[in-house]
Amino acid sequence: MALYKTITVNKHTKVLIWKIEESFEELNRNVKLTNHCQQRLDGMRSEIHQRGFLSVRHLLAEFGYTDFDLYYDDKGKPHLQDGKHISITHSFNFSAIIVSDSIPVGIDIEMQRDKILRIAHKFTPLEEYKTIANHEALVRKVTIVWGGKESIYKVYSEKGLSFLKHIDINDFSLETSKTKGTVYFGEETATYSLDFLEFEGFTCVYALEENR
Question: Sign of dihedral through CA atoms 117, 118, 123, 126?
Answer without folding.
Answer: positive
